[in-house]
Amino acid sequence: MHNTSTELLKRAELICQKRSVRFTPIRQKVFSIMAEQLGSISAYDLLDKLRETEKSAKPPTIYRALDFLLEHGFIHKIESINAYILCPHFGTHHPMQLLICDQCGVVIELHDEKIDDAFSEQATSHGFSITNTTLEAHGNCSDCQSNEIA
């Protein structure tokens, strides 16, 4: 099921209402920009897009909005490339692994509990307490692999 950015925004608004948190117009605009993205986007690219309608937007504007969206599970940060993606399962915290294509930049989000459980078991066996898990793997997507062969 492919949701439109309008449907996603309405879903996010409902979650914010249920949680009694403010989904300010700026947060909504940043969310909408991210919902229209096909892949990941950097904070400064987000800022450039936001400035199309909010001329006075500054870096703190974007980072405050991103912090809110991260805190409430609407987006994920891709640490290795310092970018963000909208979470298709937003509003809940869940196991997550990311496959990142180094050629075209596509990001595929996986939710494999077996991988998450195995990782957690290994951490526990080493006396490590995990507070946040995002596994990132870099390589080439199937489209880019096909283009290499052609």
UniProtKB/TrEMBL annotation:
<dbReference type="Pfam" id="PF01475">
    <property type="entry name" value="FUR"/>
</dbReference>
<dbReference type="InterPro" id="IPR043135">
    <property type="entry name" value="Fur_C"/>
</dbReference>
<keyword id="KW-0408">Iron</keyword>
<keyword id="KW-0678">Repressor</keyword>
<keyword id="KW-0804">Transcription</keyword>
<dbReference type="InterPro" id="IPR036388">
    <property type="entry name" value="WH-like_DNA-bd_sf"/>
</dbReference>
<keyword id="KW-0238">DNA-binding</keyword>
<protein>
    <recommendedName>
        <fullName>Ferric uptake regulation protein</fullName>
    </recommendedName>
</protein>
<dbReference type="InterPro" id="IPR036390">
    <property type="entry name" value="WH_DNA-bd_sf"/>
</dbReference>
<keyword id="KW-0862">Zinc</keyword>
<keyword id="KW-0479">Metal-binding</keyword>
<dbReference type="InterPro" id="IPR002481">
    <property type="entry name" value="FUR"/>
</dbReference>
<comment type="similarity">
    <text>Belongs to the Fur family.</text>
</comment>
<comment type="subunit">
    <text>Homodimer.</text>
</comment>
<keyword id="KW-0963">Cytoplasm</keyword>
<keyword id="KW-0805">Transcription regulation</keyword>
